[in-house]
Amino acid sequence: MTYNASAEALQIGALQEQTHHVLFVHGTLGHLDSSDSAAGSVSRQSDGLHLNIAQANGQATVHLPIPTTLVFGQARVSVRSVVLDFIAGPDLRVIKVQVFDGNTLKASFENLTLTGDQRFQEFEIPGHVAMTRGINVAVTASRGIEAKGDILFIAMGAIFIVKGGIIAPT
Which of 166, 139, 148, 126 is nearest to 63 (CA)? Predict the structure, then answer.
């Protein structure tokens, strides 16, 4: 599912009955995977995180942390989906999105070819899993021979839903 890049995207009327919390953060929170330091670079600017891939046909991975709600009221919360808001320059594309709970891989979306304006691109997590350590979204991008510019990560977020019963007070 893809949302429009507008205020209506955050009103999420169709999800209102089961969605209890939607959280977005600015793109400047991301960082480049340390193993990719020769392949690319990131710069934090007022409009978000800019990923530049240095070599033609190169790849780089950027990590985008999302503050994670574990409990809403007295109910356990799980993640329905993560949402990315980004713009990829010509001949640049997002090829893989992985969602981690701490150091545990929870979902992987591979063989993607997302390019251009990708506003509020949603990645639904199979089984709507509960997170216990915090969400990290690892986005792998590639550059073609003719690439110009960079990939701008404007924002990222998660849609949380109630899953499970009431949590007993301690």
Answer: 139
How many helices (H) and strands (E) the chain has is answered by: 0, 12
DSSP 139-168: EEEEE-TT--S-EEEEEEEEEEEEEEEEPP
Contact 160, 72 (CB under 8 A): yes
Domain of residue 99 covers 30-163
Structural domain includes residue 2: no
Q: What is the pLDDT along the chain (170 residues), one digit of tens a residue?
A: 333 334 444 443 444 445 567 888 888 888 888 787 667 888 888 899 999 998 888 899 999 999 887 877 777 788 999 999 999 988 999 999 999 999 999 999 999 999 999 999 999 999 888 888 889 999 999 998 887 789 999 999 999 887 655 444 43
Q: Does the residue 120 lie in any domain?
A: yes
Cα separations in angstroms, 127 against 13, 24, 78, 80, 111: 22, 21, 9, 8, 21
**To which H or E segment does residue 107 belong?**
strand 104-109
Count of domains observed in the chain = 1
Q: pTM for the whole thing?
A: 0.82
Dist. CA 151–CA 109, nearest whole Å: 18
